[in-house]
Design brief:
heterodimer; A: about 0% strand; B: mainly alpha
Chain lengths: ~220, ~80
């Protein structure tokens, strides 16, 4: 013990380190997806299903389960990146933290849905497993960017939020739910293709000539 | 990429229109599916995103998707 120094001074760096450690656990880039546009592929079908099917208390459990399933992809992706050397190993801890948070939220919501008689909606989550596996495999190979087929397939999985919300609202498994999901998927697929077009256009050196002046080749930009 | 995007979105519009004619979906629902093809025509032919930041592209598409969602809900009833 150093004279003049209080006994508590040796604990202050530990407190600061703990605060820093906790702050790192709450890392935003681990908790939330980087692709901001992906949110609409979940919320649009969910909004359609809730608006057309009606809202009941169990709809909150469904929405929470959907959100947890949607968000869990990010910490899992970070964990795969950490294991494959694309991210520092130090990001494993926040990844496990958020995985646990979302996993727990999803589990509680799923139990609530089961108990309230809407457990059949959980079957709609099954297609997400092979799609997530596909995504993580691409992540491990550093090839997950600009994969139109993957993004369109994933948007189809997210569009299942529409039938899920519709069925919970109507307490049925009406075929209209499937129709809503399919229609939402059409919009999502079309918007993904368009987004890819816009991202390709970014690298053009200049705005091309007027389409009428440049003729039939213009649609091929 | 413009042609596939254009063709695909118009094919989707035609498909929904066919469903409306067959009375499987409400008759005005195709109007909601007109929003994206119009945006593709605008962005694919008249205002390519030369030098535009990805965030701006994303925000515009978010606006289009929001308009679609609201129209879908309104026109379904």
């Amino acid at each position: 013990m150093v004279p003049g120094k209080s006994i508590t001074s040796s604990s202050q760096p530990n407190t600061a380190q703990r605060k820093l450690g906790f702050k790192k656990l709450l890392s935003r880039h681990v908790a939330l997806p980087a692709e901001h546009g992906a949110w609409v592929f979940l919320f649009s079908p969910l909004a359609v299903g809730l608006a057309l099917g009606g809202v009941r208390p169990e709809s909150a459990a469904l929405a929470t389960a959907l959100l947890a399933a949607f968000l869990i992809r990010q910490p899992v992706t970070i964990a795969v990146k950490a294991f494959s050397g694309r991210r520092p190993r130090a990001e494993l801890a926040p990844a496990v933290f958020w995985l646990s948070v979302y996993g727990l939220l999803g589990l509680v919501s799923a139990i609530l849905l089961l108990v309230s008689g809407f457990g059949y909606t959980l079957w709609l989550a099954l297609p997400a497993l092979p799609v997530l596996t596909w995504h993580l495999w691409l992540v491990s190979r550093r090839a997950e960017r600009r994969q139109a087929a993957l993004e369109i397939t994933a948007s189809g999985v997210l569009a299942l939020a529409a039938p899920a919300a519709y069925w919970v609202g109507t307490s049925s498994t009406d075929a209209t739910g499937w129709l809503l999901g399919g229609l939402c998927w059409l919009q999502s697929a079309g918007s993904i293709l368009y987004a890819f077009l816009r991202l390709e256009q970014r690298v053009l050196k200049a705005i091309p000539h007027h389409p009428i002046a440049c003729g039939w080749r213009c649609p091929l930009w | 990429m413009a042609l596939p995007s254009l063709v695909t979105n118009f094919v989707f519009l035609l498909a929904v229109s066919a469903l409306a004619v067959a009375r499987i979906v409400p008759p005005l629902l195709p109007l909601a599916f007109l929003v994206q093809p119009l945006e593709v025509v605008w962005g694919g032919l008249f205002r390519p995103a030369v030098g535009v930041k990805p965030v701006k592209i994303g925000m515009r598409q978010l606006a289009v998707s929001t308009v679609f969602t609201l129209l879908f809900i309104l026109l379904w009833h």
